[in-house]
Every structure is written in structure tokens, then in C-alpha cells.
Design a protein that fits this description.
It is flat and about 75 Å long. The termini are far apart. The protein is mainly α and 228 residues long. The chain has helices at residues 2-44, 49-64, 67-82, 90-119, 123-131, 136-166, 178-187, 197-223.
Amino acid sequence: MELFLEQLPIVLKSLNTGFFQTLKLFFITLIGAFPLGLVISFGSMSRFRPLQYLTRFLVWIIRGTPLMIQLLIIFYFPSLVLGRPIWGGGESGRFLAASVSFIFNYACYFSEIYRGGIQGIPAGQTEAGLVLGMTRSQIFFQITLLQMIKRIVPPMSNEIITLVKDTSLARIIALQELIWAGEAFMKGSQGISGAIWPLFFTAIYYLIFNGLLTVALGRLEQKLDYFR
């Protein structure tokens, strides 16, 4: 017990640093993936068939392959082809590569949710808007978009919760996120060797953060009940 109390401040300091990295990756992914996913969904619904097929083919590849493989390819493949690293060195370079991988991966998943939400709106509403003299952009932003948001909140919430846990995959390219920080105490790189109990603390971090997100997303869904 005395040894545990002595090591606890060191462990918490390292885990806090790793969790901050996890939070940065999480929020940057959302900031990039939300708008990019909407753009990709427009491509997959485009009436221009080559663009539609190309977009859906890319989404199929991203959704059909593991995120871990995508991380490895995006981080290592360009340097193998060009003969030099394009992401820069050190932790910042790994973080940039991880951010690009996560944004593109989740944008593809979000695009399918957007597409389902948009196509789930009755076509009669668009026709009624056109009869009233509204443009298609006005119909989308004033009628379709608001109803789509209500429809996509539950599936989007599931993806956001999954993203929190998926950030742990970034350690495959040696990004020092939360799980990496916990594993360091097993390997002895933090001056403490063979300690597995810090990994249980990482689970607490994830549980608390996911719990807060679940409450926040649940309240958002309640506030959107006026669309019913």
C-alpha cells in the first residue's frame, strides 16, 4: 500500500498527459470529420454518376478496412514512396498523421449517417418547397437540415462514443495517448517496471469521459424533441 501511494502521483501525472493527448485527437477529429462527412455525403448522393461512384468506392474502402491499417499506411507509406517523412518528426508529426487518419475515417462513417438522414426526409417536402418558390439550397438549410439533425443524433452519438475508445489505436504509430501512458509502467519507461494497475486507471478515464458525453448527447437529443 505504501508503494502504491508513492507511485500514484507519478502515474496520475503521466496518465493526465496521455489523456490530454487523447482529448486533443478526439476534438480535432470531430471538428474535421463533421463538415468533411457532409461534403462526402453530397458526393455519394450526387447526380453526376462518376463522382457518386468514386465517392462511394472510397467510403467502401475506408469502412471495409481496419482503422489501424489506415493509420500505418498514412503514417509510413508516403515516406516509403518519397524517401522522406512528410509528417515531420517527433510527437507532433505522429499526432498530425493520426489526426488525418481519424478525420478521414470518421468522415466516411459520418457521411453514411448524413446520407441516411437526408434521404429519410420525405421527398414531398422538397417538392412543396419548390412549389412555394424556394431554392434547393433554401429547402436544404431551412427544412431538410434541421430535420436531419434530429434523425442523426442517436447514430452519431454511437460513433462519437466509439471514437473515444478508438483513439487508443493511435499508439500503433507510437503516439503517446492514454493507453500508451498506461502501458509505459509495464515496460519501465517511466521508472516503474512491471506495474499493470495503471491500465485499470486508464479504464476509469474512459468511463468518466464517456459517461459525460452520454449525458451531454442525451440532453441534446431531448432538446431536439420539438421536431417530433
